[in-house]
Amino acid sequence: MSDNPEVTIRVIAILGGTGKEGKGLAFAWAKAGYKILIGSRQVEKAQAAADDVLQMTGGKADIQGVTNTEAAEQADIVVMTVPFAAHRTMLESVKPNLAGKILVDVTVPLVPPKVTKVQMPPAGSAAQEAKEIVGEATEVVAAFQNISYENLLSGEDVECDVLVTGSSKAARETVIKLVEDAGLIGWDAGPIENSVVVEGLTSILIGLNKKYGVESSGIRITGIPRRV
Amino acid sequence: MSDNPEVTIRVIAILGGTGKEGKGLAFAWAKAGYKILIGSRQVEKAQAAADDVLQMTGGKADIQGVTNTEAAEQADIVVMTVPFAAHRTMLESVKPNLAGKILVDVTVPLVPPKVTKVQMPPAGSAAQEAKEIVGEATEVVAAFQNISYENLLSGEDVECDVLVTGSSKAARETVIKLVEDAGLIGWDAGPIENSVVVEGLTSILIGLNKKYGVESSGIRITGIPRRV
Question: Does the structure show a pLDDT above 50 at B193?
Fold first, then answer.
């Protein structure tokens, strides 16, 4: 469980959590002992995803499927894994439920068909757009944009570090703890303006996946002793 | 020596090459057998840097110090290592000498005092600004923004990959060959729009250097078999 002077995290909401990103994170955090609320517009879909994850943990998880709004309302921290096309709409609909909480934005602003080319929204990045929408009441942290969810779901080694950017240092530190609880290595990558780098890196990794015929290229920070 | 259907590289100019970045690259490429022209506004400074590098190679290098304009004029490929404050002026002054050549831009648009925060110029990145200035006649490739020049100069292992972005695939491939000849691993990181990621990553690495008290954090691509 995360525990810092500012916030104690027990319940994690994963909005738009029915895809592999949401289920992968839910699986990792459920194993670490967090209560997970998977959110979707349709409760049935959310519940089906929650059941999948429950089964993956051998029935040993505290996980439930609810609407996105309920998930955001009931959680201590809110993670969002949606396609960029749904980013703004989702944020506007849950904004009232985010006040005083940290929003963890996993969104990468890919613009099909050129997903290997970095194309940021006018705000500078998806995370900066999120911050503009949610305003002062909610800290926004961007993370988990580069990892392979196939590996996270299958329990294989995720050979990719997590660069954590965000609108306050305390919020980044809270999320780095969650990264570690998910079995990954997290690094403080600085202010939210730096999220363009991490979001954009996904396009570069997709290009490398295509070029080399692999599924999960990633990055590692070198030159600093690794924590286990 | 680099050799692809489009261009054979024998002579490398390093503009603004009297700092550690320029000397580090000059040292690596001189050892690989390239003829190096170190450029500076003052020939004396360029010659002193060339002498330093010559000495580091035990006198076994073909290296010379000349003006920036002469270096650009006489080289097959032109590498630029200048502080961002000198970026535009330098490009405007050597533009006539770059036609038909590849420009390798090593510039990171750091804006003191907040060098750990990504702050890109209106063009999107230093490399995109360079492309706007030099125009259609010159391909621009961005590379080498993240590596530790201390390690390159001392001959220690540079534990950092080189992400190569640029305005044409052929130009990126030419530069990846030069990366390998310098003893590093290079990756095709896609179109020049992606240079924002690699330039911005430098700010993140500077932040990590400060936080962890190290001098040369870097990145490695994972999940793809490494070439030696």
Answer: yes
